[in-house]
Design a protein that fits this description.
This protein is α+β, with helices and mostly antiparallel strands and about 350 residues long. The relative contact order is 0.09.
C-alpha cells in the first residue's frame, strides 16, 4: 500500500497554513487533494510531500514548519489533543501522547527518555526524506504550543533537530524559546526532569477515562512503541542490507547498548525482533503475489534467494512455494465451505 499519513494531520497542517496567511486553495491544488476529506482516512505520503513543497514555495523561510506547529489550533488533532489535555501532570500527558501517537502519524513514534535531570521527548522516524524534518518541526512546535498553554511552569532546556543548520538559526531559537542545535539523528525536546510532575491546568480525570474507553484496546501500548519504531526502521533499511543492530540503533537515535537493554526490558532480543519481522513480511509478500521470490529476498535483506529459502524453511519447515500452495489450497477450501453453507 505504500507509506501513508492520517488525513486529520494533513488537515491540521492546512489550517495552520491558513492562519499563517498562505493560499490554501493553491496548496490543495498542488497537493492534488479533494475539497473534502474524511479525517479518519489515510492519504498517500506523496500528498504531504507536495503540500510541504507548495508551502515552502509560498513562504520560503526555514522556520515555516515550526511556525505552523506553534499555531495549530487545539482540537485540530482530534481525540489525541483532548486526551493529552485531560492528564493530571505533564509526564502523564506525554505518556498518553506516546501511547496513542499512531493516531496522527503512521511512520513516526514519540518516545520518552529519562536521564539524570533530563526528560526528553524524541521523534523516531523510520526513513528520512526531504519533508520528514519539516514534519518533526511541525510536531515539536505543536507539542510546545500545547504544553505552554497548560503547564504554568513549562520551560525547555534544549531542542535538537535533524535538519541541517540554516543560514540564520536565530529565528528557531526565538520561536522555540530554547537553545537549538542541528544535524542530530532524531529530533527531540529536552525538558527539566522535575517538570514531569508539573500539573496540567486542563486536567479532567473523567474526560480522560471516557476518552481512553473509546480507544481500541491493544493499540499504542507502551511496550510496543519501541518495537513499532524498530520494525519501521527495518522496513526501510533491510533492502539496503543494513540490518546490524548498531546501524538500526543509530537510525533510532540511541546507542546499540541502549537498544539491546530496552529490548531485554520488554522480554525481547534484537535478533528475535528481526527474525519475526522478516517472517511476517515474507508471508505477507508471498500472499500478496505482486513480487517474485528474488525481490522478496532483496526486500528482507538476504544475500540471495537461496538464503531466503533456507530461512523460510527454518521458520515454517516448508519451502516458500510449498507454503504458498498450502495456504492457497486452504483458502480455496474455506471459500467452498462458505458457499456450501450459504446454499443450504
Amino acid at each position: 500500500m505504500g507509506r501513508r499519513v492520517p488525513a486529520i494531520t494533513v488537515q491540521a497542517l492546512l489550517e495552520s497554513f491558513r492562519l499563517l496567511g498562505l493560499d490554501t486553495q493553491r496548496l490543495r491544488a498542488d497537493a492534488e487533494m479533494p475539497d473534502r476529506l474524511d479525517p479518519g482516512v489515510l492519504l498517500p505520503d506523496v500528498v504531504q510531500e507536495r503540500l510541504w513543497a507548495s508551502a515552502f514555495r509560498q513562504a520560503p523561510r526555514a522556520e515555516l514548519a515550526v511556525e505552523a506547529g506553534l499555531i495549530v489550533p487545539f482540537g485540530a488533532l482530534g481525540t489525541l489533543d483532548y486526551l493529552a489535555a485531560s492528564a493530571a501532570t505533564l509526564g502523564e500527558s506525554c505518556e498518553l501522547l506516546a501511547r496513542q501517537f499512531h493516531r496522527v502519524s503512521c511512520e513516526r513514534s514519540l518516545e520518552i527518555e529519562q536521564r539524570a535531570g533530563d526528560y526528553r521527548l524524541k521523534l523516531l522516524v523510520a526513513e528520512t526524506r526531504a519533508h520528514t524534518s519539516a514534519w518533526d518541526e511541525f510536531t515539536l512546535g505543536a507539542l510546545l504550543g500545547r504544553f505552554r498553554a497548560r503547564v504554568a511552569t513549562f520551560t525547555v532546556t534544549a531542542v535538537q533537530l535533524r535538519r541541517a543548520r540554516p543560514e540564520d538559526p536565530r529565528r528557531f531559537a526565538e520561536l522555540l524559546a530554547a537553545p537549538v542545535s542541528f544535524g542530530h539523528a532524531v529530533s527531540s525536546l529536552c525538558l527539566p526532569e522535575p517538570l514531569r510532575d508539573a500539573p496540567v491546568s486542563s486536567s479532567d480525570p473523567w474526560l480522560r477515562r471516557a476518552l481512553e474507553s473509546l480507544m481500541p484496546e491493544g493499540e499504542g501500548d507502551t511496550g510496543s512503541t519501541l518495537e513499532r519504531s524498530l520494525r519501521a526502521c527495518l522496513r526501510a533499511l533491510l533492502p539496503e542490507g543494513r540490518l546490524g543492530a548498531a546501524t538500526v540503533a543509530g537510525s533510532l537515535g540511541m546507542s546499540e547498548r541502549s537498544l539491546h537493554r530496552r529490548l531485554r526490558e520488554l522480554g525481547q532480543s534484537y535478533r528475535g525482533v528481526v527474525d519475526a519481522f522478516r517472517r511476517e513480511e515474507a508471508e505477507r509478500l508471498l500472499l500478496d503475489g505482486r513480487v517474485d521470490m528474488a525481490q522478496i529476498a532483496h526486500r528482507l535483506g538476504f544475500a540471495d534467494q537461496s538464503a531466503f529459502s533456507r530461512a523460510f524453511r527454518r521458520w515454517t519447515q516448508m519451502a516458500p512455494s510449498a507454503w504458498l500452495s498450502d495456504r492457497s489450497a486452504a483458502a480455496a477450501a474455506g471459500r467452498r465451505a462458505t458457499l456450501a453453507a450459504l446454499d443450504k
